[in-house]
């Protein structure tokens, strides 16, 4: 796994990085000394897990943890700190573990084993939720979700758009909508990338459902869909949207 260590103390970063590299589960370890450098590294590399100190000069690790939650596929979080009084708060931001300084190899190994267990569980869950059917020589992907204690089967070509708000993922088809607690990243990894396009950090649309791209306000744009809905295109996605629409 690829790991990012975020700590403003060079010696602490080096010590933890060394211990992480001794574990068989570690592929590579990167370092950052602030939230800014951590975000830069996250944009450059696909990080699987991030070890965050709570005290980062004038910043704190919880700020970074909250920013990570905005990502489509956020890395898992382990807090690595000298403060033992923030453990409850750490788990409120879905931290996998809370490792105290001074670091010990056995404790670092234990944290990595927890991370690995979550990855295995996610992989098993993902495999059970995706169903592939074959019609002739053509493969049709189906999305399977749990909604209202029932399993809903949605064909990808019927999906118009999907959006996430307050932790609830909503899938919209013609005349129907379904909600689940899965993430947008979970859905995006299952969709045919030739047919779907992310237009906002919280919105995915079916390209075949787009009828117009029109100017909105303050130099932004919105999409008009075939079902009459209009969705915003954020500035960070407008270039890729125009490229996919061959504009």
UniProtKB/TrEMBL annotation:
Residues 143-247 form the HTH LytTR-type domain. The modification 4-aspartylphosphate is found at residue 53. Residues 2-116 form the Response regulatory domain. The lineage of its organism: Bacteria, Bacillati, Bacillota, Bacilli, Lactobacillales. GO terms for molecular function: DNA binding; phosphorelay response regulator activity. This is Two-component response regulator. InterPro entries: CheY-like_superfamily, LytR-like, LytTR_DNA-bd_dom, Sig_transdc_resp-reg_receiver. It comes from the Bacteria. PROSITE patterns: HTH_LYTTR, RESPONSE_REGULATORY. Keywords: Phosphoprotein.
């Amino acid at each position: 796994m690829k790991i990012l260590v975020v700590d403003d103390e060079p010696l602490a970063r080096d010590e933890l990085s060394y211990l992480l590299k001794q574990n068989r589960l570690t592929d590579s370890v990167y370092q950052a000394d602030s939230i800014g450098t951590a975000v830069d590294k996250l944009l450059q590399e696909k990080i699987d897990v991030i070890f965050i100190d709570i005290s980062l000069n004038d910043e704190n690790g919880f700020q970074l943890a909250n920013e990570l939650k905005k990502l489509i596929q956020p890395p898992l979080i382990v807090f690595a700190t000298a403060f033992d009084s923030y453990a409850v708060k750490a788990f409120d931001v879905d931290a996998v573990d809370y490792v105290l300084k001074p670091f010990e190899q056995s404790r670092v190994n234990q944290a990595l084993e927890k991370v690995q267990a979550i990855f295995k569980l996610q992989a098993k869950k993902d495999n059970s939720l995706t169903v592939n059917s074959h019609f002739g020589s053509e493969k049709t992907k189906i999305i399977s979700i749990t909604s209202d204690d029932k399993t809903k089967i949605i064909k990808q070509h019927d999906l118009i758009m999907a959006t996430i708000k307050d932790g609830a993922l909503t899938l919209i088809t013609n005349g129907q909508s379904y909600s689940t607690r899965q993430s947008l990243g979970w859905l995006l990894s299952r969709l045919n990338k030739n047919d779907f396009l992310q237009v906002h950090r919280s919105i995915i649309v079916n390209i075949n459902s787009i009828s117009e791209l029109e100017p909105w306000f303050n130099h932004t744009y919105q999409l008009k869909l075939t079902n009459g809905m209009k969705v915003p295109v954020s500035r960070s996605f407008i270039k890729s949207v125009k490229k996919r629409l061959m504009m």
